[in-house]
Amino acid sequence: MEPRFDYSTSPLAAKIIKHLSSAAKAAESAGLPAEIPNLVLLRASQINGCGFCTDMHYKDAVHAQEDPIRLNLVAAWHEATVFTDAERAALALTEEGTRIADARTGVDDDVWESARKQFSDDELVGLIALIAVINAYNRLNVLVGTPAGTYQPGQFA
Questions:
Q1: Over residues 95-122, mean pLDDT
Q2: Where is the Carboxymuconolactone decarboxylase-like domain positioned along the sequence (predicted)?
Q3: Does residue 108 lie in a domain region?
Q4: Containing domain of residue 120, as a range?
Q5: In this structure, are residues 118 and 86 in contact, taking their beta carbons and an 8 Å threshold?
């Protein structure tokens, strides 16, 4: 499978990706527990059908010593017993923030309140930003048909 467009050949694409990466780095400095960004990035990518990002974030999480069993259960986190209350709140906010158009109110008040209880203001800002940035990356990759399966951990470091 070949992508429809190669970002590496476009100076403008490089500039946009640089700014998205800067936003992601700022969000990661919010002090969230280390496991939460990996779960959030993986879950949003699954929902959006972004094979490249799903592959990338699964491999990065395993590389960071996350349990593959937990990662395999991210898609079924509602029924899984392996996630903390904070992780569950982050996953719920990720789902509603990713599927924002599917609900009349965007993010349900109960989901928001659960996240507010689990995270400080800075952590919540970081979480919201991670959800927004991964959704942008997912859309970029899905739109151009970036193929999945070849990512190596640390490839973009």
A1: 93
A2: 17-96
A3: yes
A4: 32-144
A5: yes
